Amino acid sequence: MSVLALAAGAGAAHAAPTAAPAAATPAAATPKATAWPGGSKVSIADDAGVFGSNLSGVSYESPSVLWAVKNGPSTLYRLVQDGSKWRPDTTNGWSEGKALHYADGSGDPDAEGVVVTPDGVFTSTERDNDNGDTSKPAVLRYAVSGSGKALNATGEWDLTSDLPSVEPNKGLEAIAWVPDSALTAHKFRDEHTKAAYNPASYPNHGTGLYFVGLEANGKVYAYALDQSGSKYTRVATIDSGFPAVMDLEYEPATGHLWAECDNTCKGRTTTLDVNATGAFAVTAQYDRPSGMANYNNEGFAIAPQSTCANGTKQVVWSDDDNDDNHALRTGTLACK
Q1: Which of 100, 237, 319, 327 is most buried, most CB within 10 Å of its CB?
Q2: Phi/psi of residue 108, each to 5°?
Q3: What residues contact residue 274 under an 8 Å CB cut-off, 6+ apart?
Q4: Nearest to 308 by CA among 252, 228, 248
Q5: Which pLDDT band holds residue 29 (cuts at 50, 70, 90)?
Q6: Are 196 and 278 in contact (CB under 8 A)?
Q7: Stretch (H or E) spanning 237
Q8: Average pLDDT over residues 36-48
Q9: Where is 234: in which H helix or E strand?
Q10: What CA–CA distance (Å, rounded) separates 238 from 256?
Q11: How many degrees, rounded to 5, is the angle at CA 330 between CA 326 and CA 332?
């Protein structure tokens, strides 16, 4: 679905959770890392000096449109393909990206992750950069139509009271969205209701759950977010297999929820799948491609399955440190 047609609806900024936090899923041993399941070659995918440092999250809207977010100053980019590279869209005011703010128009949200869903474009944030000494883990929704230079959140879910207390720069790094149809098909267990997940239990939550990753502990938290306001319910707590998590990516073709760690974990990724008890658990761990240095990759996105050619599809990494004056690199992943 094109995000240009996504609906907007503002909610209150700070609501308490609808229930006490759910118990964490017991952690299992993480499998030993194996070779990256794609090509070893990695290519530069942006022109030099376009983004600078702090490009943190990426998410495909379609084969030819990629969204990216910078955490400081908070900026959302709509990227389009230009040969083998990605460049900012030059239409509707996107050429320099658009500044992000909270729902009331204030602040500079430290946006670390981004995901495109049927409900809008969502970011996961660590804090307000204008008050950088205070942790404020939150999920923000944006409507991206129009040509203005700045965007105010149309939805805001402050998760501070529901998550562990963390340092201001160790908050929500990652976000992904998993459709209800996939969760129910795999008999995902709801830790809040202590039964099989039933979407009807969460009115106004849309058609899927939002999974966010906390850098400080490597945990992933699944939430039903009330799209008509600011209420939320934690549905599951999951171990990513890493001490820190930088991005999450749901791959519909395989059902994998991918977790990415940066140079803290040598650029490795894990896959998580729903097991026989209905819980997400780590099923594999992969090294980064052998042709890629140990960059500070904080973003990871997988191209749609429709792009598969010769048995592979594109993946994109975003490098927060802008090493060698480049922030985007692409590689390939096997189309399993």
Answers
A1: 327
A2: -135, 80
A3: 183, 186, 187, 188, 255, 280, 281
A4: 252
A5: confident
A6: yes
A7: strand 232-239
A8: 98
A9: strand 232-239
A10: 14
A11: 165
Q: Sign of dihedral through CA atoms 282, 283, 287, 288?
A: negative
Average pLDDT of the chain, as a whole number: 93
Residue type at position 230: S
On the question of pLDDT at 10 being above 70, the answer is no
C-alpha R_g of the chain: 18
pLDDT at position 59: 98
The span from the CA of 130 to the CA of 94, in Å, is 24
- Cα 72 to Cα 272: distance, rounded to the nearest angstrom: 30
**Residue 132: count of CB within 10 angstroms of its CB:** 15
Mean pLDDT calculated for residue range 213-237: 98
Rounded CA separation 59/111 (Å):
13
**Residue 225 identity (one-letter amino acid):** L
φ, ψ (nearest 5 deg) of residue 110: -75, 75
Phi, psi of 150 (to 5 degrees): -140, 155
> Of 80, 100, 179, whose CA–CA distance to 144 is shortest?
100
- Write down the pLDDT at residue 28: 67
Q: What is the pLDDT at residue 15?
A: 42
pLDDT value of residue 336: 83
Displacement of CA 211 from its chain's centroid (Å):
8
Q: Give 11's pLDDT tier (boundaries 50, 70, 90).
A: very low
